[in-house]
From TrEMBL:
<feature type="domain" description="Peptidase M16 C-terminal">
    <location>
        <begin position="683"/>
        <end position="860"/>
    </location>
</feature>
<dbReference type="GO" id="GO:0008237">
    <property type="term" value="F:metallopeptidase activity"/>
</dbReference>
<dbReference type="InterPro" id="IPR007863">
    <property type="entry name" value="Peptidase_M16_C"/>
</dbReference>
<keyword id="KW-0378">Hydrolase</keyword>
<dbReference type="InterPro" id="IPR011249">
    <property type="entry name" value="Metalloenz_LuxS/M16"/>
</dbReference>
<dbReference type="Pfam" id="PF05193">
    <property type="entry name" value="Peptidase_M16_C"/>
</dbReference>
<keyword id="KW-0645">Protease</keyword>
<dbReference type="GO" id="GO:0046872">
    <property type="term" value="F:metal ion binding"/>
</dbReference>
<keyword id="KW-0862">Zinc</keyword>
<protein>
    <submittedName>
        <fullName>Zinc protease</fullName>
    </submittedName>
</protein>
<dbReference type="GO" id="GO:0006508">
    <property type="term" value="P:proteolysis"/>
</dbReference>
<dbReference type="Pfam" id="PF00675">
    <property type="entry name" value="Peptidase_M16"/>
</dbReference>
<comment type="similarity">
    <text>Belongs to the peptidase M16 family.</text>
</comment>
<dbReference type="InterPro" id="IPR050626">
    <property type="entry name" value="Peptidase_M16"/>
</dbReference>
<feature type="domain" description="Peptidase M16 C-terminal">
    <location>
        <begin position="205"/>
        <end position="386"/>
    </location>
</feature>
<dbReference type="InterPro" id="IPR011765">
    <property type="entry name" value="Pept_M16_N"/>
</dbReference>
<keyword id="KW-0482">Metalloprotease</keyword>
């Protein structure tokens, strides 16, 4: 490891001499991106990118958010965003959404928008192989930019939707934010704004008010068109100039404004409790001037911050590996804040009664760095990791999705900083990283740890109100932190992961499946490997695996230990490496490997870079052969697990109680599916869990592995023989047991009364037996997607009854061929039954008459468009191949999916709906305490 590091640093020093530049130079924009500004002030970003092929990702970015609102307008920036989907010059009422759905673009998944304090952004992914649709997309962008109609009837309908969104956001988090945010914002406008607004304003604002807001702020100088995709950039630039150049510039535009947060010499403290807050969080924030990345010197400073964050959080993570961890979670970070500010913040999620211990533990690490600094070995590892992650982005530069580039340019526009591009940035990192010294990094805490512009937030359960520290006590803990700290000792193991390399097995059988580009290998120990080389990514290989059995092979009494077996094993690390030392050993490598033990199967999944193939296979081998017992780490893990459950049950979250109840009903109250209680943790036997783990992973002949990504089969085979072929195999083939875990049958009504907010949630779940055939699965997916279209149209848009409503289906082949289809929504408690009745009427209509042809057509084009993209992704093939082999299907049938979608008709959906919407219906409702549905 040491010689490898010397090589890397030596290489970087050569690069530094070759690419050194004036750090004070402004960063030039990525030369592969066309950036321009029209005479009216509108900015545009254009980039040709063919990932995915025949697609473009378009955006309208507006430098306007809730901070620009006047008091009587609070919430109208967000309301304006909603109105962009409810009537424009070229697309009246809901025709915009319908038009896009009919051309393969999903509302919510693809077509969407968001509003924040400082921006509003609209997303529009579109096909480029249809000139008509592609041109229409720019009509939509232009309409959003200045032609949203804001009809009074549509405004009034949308009030209900947004009021439901407001209702859905109610809870402990919102109530506490309303109390602490004005305090830490120190009387500034930031503390007087929330993006969604207030109920009073949303109900009562006049239509003319929102029209004036739109007219004032949606002006070309505040807007940018972002277009990245598989198209001719010159043609797109011409379209933008023609369509957007004609928008008149407004004379004497209203400035966006500056919104400073007044400086505070004393610490602002907010101690807030709530009846429904389950655990205690303490956060210490210091406001800093914003670092805008406009020069190469700024970029170098960002690199220093990234190194600092990485090293400090590694230390904080190590503390959770103690036998008695000082907190549940803790972290520190230099990052963005609001407006023209950054922040240095530390947070802790405290254990029960452990606020002082947890807070001091996090702050002690900050002071330890202030007093003693980081070590040279820590900095070396951080540099390697930063270099590796940057190099990975560079390697994927021609495989990067258009959406990623578009998101980058969106940030550039709003923050007024240029994007240098990954090629230039990688060169910059290689040049500058070696010159970042330990002294530079160790000087940073002096600039970060300060009483000036500091704020402290405590969020806690109301039941702990009397035991919380007073403000003076809290500040004393903070100011006296780190008095007894000593220098950090960096413990590193330099020996190899495997002390002795295994004796390779052999490939005993090989089969080609040319139709799907797959090679199937059988190794001498019986293990099967399915290989699909691809060029979808340059620096990615994904793998999955399975072996039947899982926890189903163990008794109810042993279920908990079997279920926790892989987690307990992972806590210990591998071979002679603790989990902390293993993380250090993997510095500079991209090799992520994790085990799972499910109810019917177990396996190992992960991803790695082609350059780290051997490392990844060694990790797989070690997970089979060399799990490591670490009593101290497991003791700490179990202590935190128990404490988390204690907090959960002491202050039950309404949503958690609701879904725990639903889960119990869906399992027929099977004891294996009942949520864990704190006392259950005491029943976990580490030795028994590790014994079960070794049983699950003790027979390689029962495993099938799938590798998909950038590799060559002939080069891969010797490594597979060495690390997978050498695993012990008994030749025994196990099968899972059917535990007969099924949902309750018949009509089941379950009401949970939890929560103090005036809001409700409902789940309508159909279930039963269903033959697991390709046709049934395809038509079940069609029912799900058609319902999502119909429910949004009817329950959200026409009834204004919900903000969210969704349908979700699932089908399983084992342990028995079954299905479930659920519909979930949140609403006013007084409308739960009304909307349930209307929802069930929609389902009954599909069952009786079939779906509308237009909805079937929308499903087919949306799903086929989605499939076109998925078929060029490694994750799609890894999942589909595993499903085919696990279900005993012909993997070549993966290619029939498009044909199956084409085969969906009104009649086929109607026929399956008659089976799916059957006699077994669970209706679960969450209502506020002491309230019932009307």
């Amino acid at each position: 490891m040491k010689s490898h590091l010397t090589f890397v640093v030596g290489f970087l020093m050569v690069a530094a001499n070759a690419v050194a530049q004036n750090l004070n130079q402004p960063i030039p924009f990525d030369p592969q991106t066309k950036v321009g500004k029209l005479p009216n002030g509108l900015t545009y970003y254009i980039r040709k990118n063919a990932e995915p092929k025949n697609r473009a990702h378009l955006m309208l970015a507006v430098k306007v958010g809730s901070i620009q609102e006047e008091d009587h307008e609070n919430g109208l920036a967000h309301f304006t965003e909603h109105m962009g989907f409810n009537g424009t010059k070229n697309f009246p009422k809901n025709e915009l959404v319908s038009f896009l759905q009919s051309n393969g673009i999903k509302f919510g998944d693809d077509l969407n928008a968001f509003t924040s304090f400082e921006q509003t952004v609209y997303f529009l992914p579109v096909p480029t192989d249809s000139a008509r649709v592609f041109l229409k997309a720019f009509d939509i962008l232009e309409d959003w930019a200045h032609n949203v109609t804001m009809e009074e009837s549509e405004i009034n309908k949308e009030r209900g939707v947004i009021l439901e969104e407001l209702r859905g956001g109610k809870g402990a988090g919102q109530r506490m934010r309303d109390k602490y945010f004005p305090i830490i914002m120190n009387g500034s406008k930031w503390g007087q704004r929330n993006v969604i607004g207030t109920e009073e304003i949303l109900k009562n604002f006049k239509p003319e008010t929102i029209r004036n807001f739109y007219k004032t702020w949606y002006q070309p100088h505040n807007e940018a068109i972002i277009a990245v995709g598989d198209f001719d950039p010159d043609q797109v630039e011409k379209i933008i100039k023609e369509k957007f150049g004609a928008i008149p510039a407004v004379p004497n535009p209203k400035p966006l404004g500056e919104y400073p947060i007044p400086a505070n010499a004393d610490t602002k403290v907010a101690i807030v409790t709530d009846k429904e807050q389950p655990y205690t969080i303490v956060q210490v924030l210091t406001r800093l001037p914003e670092l805008q990345e406009r020069t190469f010197a700024d970029s170098r400073e960002k690199i220093k911050r990234a190194l600092f964050n990485q090293m400090l959080n590694n230390r904080l993570q190590e503390l959770t590996k103690k036998a008695d961890p000082p907190y549940q979670f803790g972290g520190s970070n230099i990052g963005g804040f609001l407006g023209k500010y950054d922040s240095f913040g530390s947070f802790v999620v405290a254990k029960t009664g452990g606020i002082e211990k947890g807070l001091k533990a996090v702050l002690d690490e900050n002071i330890r760095v202030l007093k003693f600094g980081f070590t040279a070995t820590e900095l070396d590892r951080a540099k390697q990791n930063l270099l590796t992650s940057t190099e990975k982005r560079f390697k994927e530069k021609d495989k990067t999705k258009s959406e990623a580039f578009a998101n980058e340019y969106m940030g550039d526009f709003v923050n007024e900083v240029p994007s240098m591009g990954i090629e230039r940035y990688f060169d910059f990192v290689k040049a500058e990283l070696p010159g970042v010294t330990l002294d530079e990094i160790n000087a940073m805490p002096k600039q970060l740890i300060s009483k000036e512009n500091r704020a402290v937030i405590v969020l806690a359960p109301e039941k702990e109100k009397e035991t919380l520290p007073k403000e003076s006590q809290l500040l004393e803990w903070i100011d006296n932190a780190g008095q007894n700290v000593t220098a950090y000792v960096d413990e590193v193991i330099t020996k190899p992961l495997l002390a002795t390399l295994p004796t390779p097995g052999k490939v005993t059988a090989e089969k080609q499946i040319p139709e799907i580009g797959v090679t199937e290998l059988t190794l001498s120990n019986g293990l099967k490997v399915v290989l699909k080389p691809t060029d979808f990514k340059n620096d990615e290989i994904l793998f999955r695996s399975y072996s039947f059995g899982g926890t189903s092979l163990y008794s109810v009494a042993d279920n908990l230990n079997a279920d926790q077996s892989n987690v307990i094993a992972a806590q210990g690390g591998l071979a002679d490496f603790s989990s902390t030392q293993l993380k250090k050993y993997l510095t500079g490598k991209v090799a992520n490997v994790s085990t799972y033990v499910g109810e019917t199967s177990e396996g190992i999944n992960g991803a790695f870079s082609p350059k780290d193939t051997e490392t990844a296979l060694q990790l797989i081998y070690a997970n089979f052969m060399l799990p490591r017992k670490d009593t101290e780490v497991v003791k700490g893990y179990l202590a935190n697990m128990k404490d988390e459950l204690v907090q959960k049950y002491a202050t039950p979250d309404p949503q958690s109680v609701f879904f725990d109840t639903l889960s119990a009903v869906m399992s027929g109250y099977n004891p294996r599916r009942i949520p864990l209680k704190p006392q259950d943790v005491d029943k976990i036997d580490v030795d028994k869990a590790l014994k079960f783990y070794k049983e699950r992973f003790g027979n390689a002949s029962d495993f099938t592995f799938f590798f998909v990504g950038n590799f060559k089969v002939d080069e891969f085979k010797p490594l597979l023989e060495k690390y997978l072929g050498s695993l012990p195999g008994t030749g025994k083939k196990e099968m899972y047991k059917d535990l007969n875990i099924r949902p309750l049958k018949g009509k089941v009504n379950k009401t949970v009364y939890r929560g103090i907010d005036d809001k409700a949630a409902a789940q309508l779940v159909y279930s039963g037996d269903l033959p697991y055939t390709p046709e049934n699965i395809t038509n079940l997916n069609a029912i799900e997607e058609i319902l999502n279209i119909k429910l949004i149209e009817e329950i959200r848009e026409k009834e204004s009854g919900v903000y969210y409503i969704y349908a979700q289906s699932d089908a399983s082949k084992f342990p028995k061929q079954t299905y479930s289809l659920s519909i979930g929504y949140g609403t006013n408690p007084g409308r739960v039954e009304e909307l349930a009745t209307k929802t069930l009427a929609i389902l009954e209509g599909i069952k009786k008459n079939g779906p509308d042809q237009k909805d079937v057509d929308k499903y087919k084009i949306e799903t086929k468009r989605q499939l076109e993209v998925q078929q060029k992704e490694n994750r799609y093939w890894a999942a589909e191949l595993q499903a085919a082999y696990q279900n005993g299907e012909d993997p070549k049938d993966i290619l029939k999916e498009m044909k199956l979608i084409d085969g969906v008709t009104v009649a086929s959906v109607k026929a399956l709906a008659a089976k799916v919407f059957g006699p077994n219906l669970i209706k679960a409702v969450l209502l506020p305490e002491k309230k019932t549905a009307k």
